[in-house]
Amino acid sequence: MSDKATLEINGQKHEFPLVTGTENEVAIDIKTLRGVTGGVTTVDPGYKNTGSCESAITFLDGEKGILRYRGYSIEELADKADFLEVAYLLIFGELPNAEELAKFHADIKKHAVVDDDIKKILDAFPKAAHPMGVLASLTSALTAFNPTSVNVDSEEEMYNAIVRILGKFPILVAWTMRKKHGMPLDYGSTSLGYVENILQMMFKRPDEDYTQNPILVNALDKLLILHADHEQNCSTSTVRITGSSHAGLFVSLSAGISALWGPLHGGANQAVLEMLEAIKEDGGDTKKYMAKAKDKSDPFRLMGFGHRVYKNFDPRAKIIKVAADEVLGDLGVEDPILDIAKGLEKEALEDQYFVDRKLYPNVDFYSGIIYRAMGIPTEMFTVMFALGRLPGWIAQWKEMRTRKEPIGRPRQLYIGETYRPFKEIEKR
Ligand code: SDX
């Protein structure tokens, strides 16, 4: 293959370098486009064909349904690693040895407290507030209690900021849920593992000891791994572009939480459960919802289906579907919603509309069924997505800042009014 792309504009030919990644993906480097063509740019709503950066963190192959973190397959990581190992891998680029992992967890535990004044901010929210709005606000509020900006050129300062947010974020997640349920705010215990402690902070009743259920621990650990990173998705791109102005890590994460909330993105896991519940209330009439999803005059979409990159099965959905069966079986939970989900999946995979558009179940289609079986309320599902995605957001923010990438500022194609003189109000 040639190492150049040629573009002809108004009879003039321009050459641009072709760059090839380690997985043999090819991109046109158009850094000089506007300069050499006298102002011609590109336009690509939703960036469906446009790469925002070069990254060494996560590789997706949407046609083959491949997902790898730093070269390790999602299947092996979900099966053999734990969430803290995967967080370390994403952020620092290598799987930790036993000593590195122990130190990482110990350093995180040192920061697993928040200023008590956070409780005053939390108390100001009505119980009806959506947990994602509360979490985005509390994450941003952490800046008030940790005001010093991170010197990204200092490995020590960067490391300390990373373990600080990894220690504090689970507390914000747990307290967001407990506030909604009117439960006292629990700190858990530093004697526990990372995921065990999250479960204890979320579920411990004030009047009882909390007994860890290994089924729940394993299920949550696997779900967090599966959500940990996903290259330049909407919320990660938000974290990167926010951080590109040199805004701090915590506020960049808060921006990512807000982007993730949308029902087309991380908010889909909540929307899937609400859709499945509606189908159940409708007597399990999946055909009606399939018809709605295909009706262009109806804004309804089959939530949990389709993906910008995966035009094959989302490998995470495959793993979560198996886990849903296992977890519900182990817990002895009979949930008709799971059967409705499986029926809907079967129908969609045989429907020409979905086949033609290569719409397969994505990560959000089955995850809520497990969260629900674990006793996590539907409104908290996207918060759990954010908890999993935290290390990925951190890794991507760190990569962007340490590579000294320029501030993100896309171009546009102006299609508005051309010049017109001001019109006095009496003449309008
Ligand atoms: C996540 O990017 C990531 O990596 C995200 C994520 C991550 O880990 O960060 O994987 C997490 O966000 C998963 C996606 C969760 N969202 C949903 O489940 C919401 C439902 N899905 C969609 O709205 C949609 O599929 C998107 C948003 C996920 C992707 O949309 P695209 O790539 O912009 O595709 P599109 O909207 O242009 O759709 C192409 C066609 C259209 O039909 P035509 O105009 O060609 O006739 O497919 C149709 C769409 O109408 N379509 C659907 C559909 N998804 C796409 N039709 C019905 N139901 C759907 N779910």
Describe this structure in words.
By secondary structure, the protein is mainly alpha-helical. The chain is 51% helix and 7% strand. The chain has 18 helices and six strands. It has helices at residues 33-37, 74-80, 83-92, 98-110, 117-123, 131-145, 155-180, 194-203, 214-226, 234-243, 249-260, 268-281, 286-294, 315-331, 336-349, 352-356, 363-373, 381-402; strands at 4-9, 12-20, 26-28, 58-61, 66-69, 72-73. The strands form two sheets. A three-stranded antiparallel beta sheet has the order 1-2-3. A hairpin with a 5-residue loop joins strand 2 and strand 3. Helix 7 (155-180) packs parallel to helix 8 (194-203), helix 11 (249-260) crosses helix 18 and helix 14 (315-331) runs parallel beside helix 17 (363-373). The termini are far apart. The mean pLDDT is 96. S-citryldethia Coenzyme A (SDX) binds at residues 46, 230, 233, 264-266, 268, 293, 301-309, 357, 359, 362-364. The site of s-citryldethia Coenzyme A (SDX) has 22 residues, from helix 17.
Summarize the SSE layout with pairings.
Elements: E1 4-9, E2 12-20, E3 26-28, H1 33-37, E4 58-61, E5 66-69, E6 72-73, H2 74-80, H3 83-92, H4 98-110, H5 117-123, H6 131-145, H7 155-180, H8 194-203, H9 214-226, H10 234-243, H11 249-260, H12 268-281, H13 286-294, H14 315-331, H15 336-349, H16 352-356, H17 363-373, H18 381-402
Antiparallel strand pairs: 1-2, 2-3, 4-5, 5-6
Helix pairs in contact: 2-9, 3-18, 4-7, 6-7, 6-11, 7-8, 7-18, 9-14, 9-17, 9-18, 10-11, 10-18, 11-18, 12-15, 12-17, 14-17
S-citryldethia Coenzyme A binds next to helix 17.
